Amino acid sequence: MDMEQVLHMNHGMGDNSYANNSIIQKKVMAEAKPILEENIMRLYSIIQPQCLKVADLGCSSGPNALQMISNVIDIVDSTSRNMNLKPPVFQFFLNDLFRNDFNTIFKLLPQFLETLEKKKGHKSGSCFINATPGTFYKRLFPDDSLHLVHSSFSLHWLSQAPKKLDNKENVHLTSTSPAAMQRAYVEQFQKDFKLFLKLRSQELVSKGGMVLTLIGSDKTQKFRTAWSLVGITLNDMVLENLIEELKLESFNLPLYDPTIEEAKEVIEEEGSFTIQKLESVILDWGAPNINDKGVDNNNNEFDINLKAEFATKFVRAALEPLLKAQFGEELMDELFLRYKNKIVQLIMEVEILEFPAHVISLIKKV
Ligand SMILES: C[S@@+](CC[C@H](N)C(=O)[O-])C[C@H]1O[C@@H](n2cnc3c(N)ncnc32)[C@H](O)[C@@H]1O
């Protein structure tokens, strides 16, 4: 499967859309905001461009893409005020793959720009928003043209899945995956992340900043991940002849959740960036926004059902287009109903569904 042509999150603003099921990603951005602030303040103390050029790589569709813009403008505005400087003109480049639903972002823009003008005093002509379709595993911008690169919750997507190696009945790594499979995933991540860093170092100005967040793992992780649960569900469906065995045997998810040490090793080996911050935050993919969802967190049956539903929609919004392309649209409702039941079971066994997200702040070396 050619990821550049196929991969995207669920389009639109419907019940299963990415736009309506990305609260966890919004939470990660909020967690990373102080680190973004630190990086921008550092940048601004060295370079005060008339036009600040910022790229968001893997922006997807929906409100989170605009939240990133709003966060950067807030930080730069208050930094400029503190330094008695006039705020710069902003140019944002929203990047994602070719099949991304950019239109959903565009439709939110008139309201967003109006709010920017009314609440933050940024008149028309002070903030330009462009779309830049393409893979971030290739060059996207001219040499030395960006001041800041932001990428949230996207770099765990590999450029391609490793080939199947004796993990026929699964679609991702599990605790019982053969060592060769583990190696194949790590090596693909190392190759992709290294290339990403090299390309961005060409596009950023000297001392430019980069803030990245991605799903990670840690050595003590006891829980089955969202990804391996997809494989278990698909395998059940093969056993019941709902899915052809061959289709499962030829499919792996192009995702890798590195440990913080693995990410650090690649950054150091690639060598273009100094690490300003590298830390992990722990997230709950079952109920990140308990109050909004009206969950009382007592783990009663009603609660568990809501958590499982929430977690399923989070995973469905991201994985459905890929799974649809491999297994067929008609199986999606059944697949995710079964997936939800697996999560209910999981919550009853382990109670919480936690995973780490790594937040990485980098500075391009001179
Ligand atoms: C989970 S979404 C995160 C979106 C957004 N940054 C947020 O925080 O809500 C990951 C996005 O990365 C995009 N993506 C994955 N691989 C990519 C690549 N090689 N180049 C550009 N975008 C990519 C996906 O299409 C998807 O929209």
UniProtKB/TrEMBL annotation:
Pfam family, one: Methyltransf_7
Keyword vocabulary terms for this entry: Magnesium, Metal-binding, Methyltransferase, Transferase
Protein's name according to its UniProt entry: Uncharacterized protein
Lineage, broadest ranks: Eukaryota, Viridiplantae, Streptophyta, Embryophyta, Tracheophyta
